[in-house]
Amino acid sequence: MERHSSEWILQEIASARNISELRAFRGQAHEAFQRRLLFSSPLDWNRDTNAFHDAIIRQVVAWAERKLLDEGAGSPPLPYAFLLFGSGGRSEQTLWSDQDNGLVYADPQSEADRQAAETYYPRLAEAIYTLLLSAGYPPCSGGVICTNERWLKPLAAYRSMLLDWFGEPDWEHVRYLLITADLRAIYGDTSLADQIMDVFQQYLADKPEMLEYLLRNTLHHKVSIGLFGQLIKERYGEDAGGVDIKYGAYIPIVNGVRLLALEAGARCSSTEDRIRSLVSSQALEEELGDDFLEALAIALKLRSMTPYQIEDGHYTTRGKLSAEQLTKERASELKLCLRIGNDLQKYVKKRVHREL
Hints:
Helix 2 runs antiparallel to helix 3 (42-70), helix 3 packs across helix 5 and helix 10 runs parallel beside helix 13 (328-355). The protein has 13 helices and 8 strands. It folds into 2 domains: 1-206, CATH 3.30.460.10; 208-356. It is α+β, with helices and mostly antiparallel strands. The model has no long low-confidence stretch (mean pLDDT 93). Residues 209-351 form the DUF294 domain.
């Protein structure tokens, strides 16, 4: 399968006749993507992998619409957008990412519209969730899922929810704000997602002191490198001797770049695009941007090399590189990533305090 291009893979997804065929093809594609990771540019590989996930998810949403139509529920009564959050929103899913999604629909203009929407969209969300589950995507353990009322509502309710979180910026509300900052519309009326982010960006423009609250959550996860440059390894359990790549390398880089992008008003969701946007707008020095991209590339590659398992048909991983995988060359590469990540966190803290 490695002989085939990414375009061919996307065509195969589009031609799948049912969820069983799609699930089987996904398993075959995983093997091809894993082999390709060893000799591809990590950033190029990441783009291809996420185009693959996007194609699967779009196919699933279209099938869910068709399912409701066949069941007599009709077509969507109002424009809507299917949203991705987390690594999906950032176009940084691994081969085994879970479901982090939501659904927003246009504000009803009549009581009939409201009733139709409140009947239709929960059914659509349930159909999407179930089909994605069958395609191998487990639900988000944190409840960021389209069947959760928090992430399934009309545009006005999304706006009110954001303003409520901004108005009471405790730890949990700020966590939700940072989750929302990564949203991306993958299907439907993308302008609805743009309007959610308009609220976000306008609030920060009017009240930049909110950046201080965002900073606290942003710096919560520290890079896994010690004072003397040594790797901080897992001490106990089946991952003993390994390193937490997700929370010790990847997430600190993602969080730091996200806050820089929010502070600069950059309207993009992927970490790579955010770095490039900051450099092109001269909000970030080119040399620093190159360093951050290098660290991101290493983190994306190593995160996608962590061991995974299939549980109940779903792909899962603990996000930790095993002790056996930490060769001398790989450990050296990881240390470079972590040193840059540490510098990034210091830079973000200094930048936000200077802004305030």
